[in-house]
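Exercise 7 asks you to align residues with tokens for two separate proteins.
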Amino acid sequence: MASRDLKNNIKILKALNIAAISTNTTTVGEEIDTQGYESVTFEIITGARTDGTVTPLIQETDTSGSYSGSVDDDNLVGLEADAAISVLHSRSRIGYIGTKRYVKLSLVSTSVTTGLTAGASVILSDAKHLPVA
């Protein structure tokens, strides 16, 4: 029995548009400003799939638009490799617990010949000011 409000205590944003991926590539997601939130979770989804695997790449920065490398595993809840998806109609999650203001999720696709559809959302929670919605 639900007795608590979650709707007004989280913010869900598009992290990566759902799109067809038909080559081995890196599909770059949206920049997410985490200011005002203490918890960040990315959810990756796949739809139709004939082949290929998508693996998340999480990046962080203090300066908007300035990304390089990937987040250290110590700043993730779960590993990027463990959040990889290689089946149709699947979901996986990975959390970020680093100290940078901006984060971004990209999907690295491998073993693609015909492809798949994939996208991602980000859930921001533990807001410093409520309600958020």
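Second protein for Exercise 7:
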Amino acid sequence: MEMISLFDYLKKPAGPELGKQVALAAMNEKILIGSKQVSNPKYKGNILMYPKSWLDIYFNQTTDEHQELHF
């Protein structure tokens, strides 16, 4: 199972609010959450890792829900 961070998945920083939403959704669905330490010029600390397949589903559903609200 490929585990990936939100940064790597989105190709940009997710930000604290989106990070909290994704973490809460993963916990509610009992999704395996990994973590790793990172250190770079912009961020130093622990980041969460999620199964890529679950992130694909999560962001597809989120996008679908937002599109439905606009029509």
